[in-house]
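Sample intake sheet
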Amino acid sequence: MALTLPAHPDPLADRLHASGLLPELAHGLGGPFHYLLPERFDANLAAFRTALTEADVEGRVYYAKKANKAAVFMDRCAAAGAGADVASLGELRDALGHGVRGEDLVVTGPAKTDQLLRVAARQGALIAVDALDELDRLLALGSERPVRVLLRRYPPTQPRSRFGLDDGQLHEALDRCAAAGDTVRMEGFSFHLSGYEVQPRADLAGELVELCLKARVLGLQADRVSIGGGFPVDYVRADDWHAFLAEQGPGHYHAQKAFAASDFYPYHFPVAGADALRAILAASPGGTGASLAERLRQAGVMLLLEPGRALLDRAGSSVFRIQGVKDRPGYGIVTVDGTSLSLSEQWFASEYLPEPVLLTEPGRDASGPYPACVGGASCLDSDLLTWRKIAFPTRPRPGDLLVYPNTAGYQMDSNESQFHELPLPSKVVIDHDGDRPRWRLDR
């Protein structure tokens, strides 16, 4: 029997799906497309800022640009005075080109090129230094203004990480910053943890608050700590998620494909988005004493955060047109006009689990459940957007649409390529400023 795992109800998306606009876009664009809902980005950004205000913590939100390449989200950052987290010269230029000020950028990533460091320094961006040689290259730039840096901390609880400065390197970096005088403005520390747990983030943030106090003894500014991203998104209901994990097995997938529960993103998370930030601020570093929020206030330390997926929650979905349906014993194989390159979980040996919504022509009666997996238009046997046999309400037909919900965060363009010279899906911005939705291409 097919397993079901629908995304949370979304009335705004439902109204859009019922408007008749998506079939028109599919016809006009001639291929798959992603639709974007920028007001959702605005709401998510506002929610994170509200969490900081409620905790009486001075903070700043930087949108992790790598989560989605759409121009509209950079536009929204600029309009709201938010920052952006960039990791390449191309991302930096794009953010500047959409109006995000240089001083509102934080530059992350390993082993940054000299050109990226030079442009970032000239624009007044905050640069997260990942290695001692990177710091030396920055100090040698001869910038006309002090270079703004954070020192990235190696996470002791994640010893396999390739990022950050260990204890000895961190203290050496502090000494070099102090010796550099006005050449550098060492503004604090940063880290990024894999996973989504609250306490490890509070613990490491608390450690870096104390390190800020020690760095000030050396004459350094040291008044901010960046806790990176890793704010989870809650895609599905708790009951559905737990039932899915308990029941799923090879028989639910095409070709008897096997997944372990650990292979999947945690699509249900009880404390997600801005609420996860609230939990981090309320937690006590080390498990005792004052909360992180209180320690930040007492030390006069600003909290920086770099959410990506969490700012894009429900801010976009991916739409594919069905090209054909093939019957197999007990289930079908639906082929759509795109590829699994547009759902990046497939390329991490995983599965995007919130199930697609089938849109048919108005008035067509449901003929009963039709279980089917969803394949891409390429010649690769492994090109499946969904290995799981989805219980569609009726047998899909060519021309019907499949809408994969809530794909804006890291799904819709992380791995896309023009394989088979198939066109990349267009990005369509949907505006709801009247009785009916209006659209425009993203670029």
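Comment: The chain is about 30% helix and 20% strand. Residues 213 and 418 are 51 Å apart (CA to CA).
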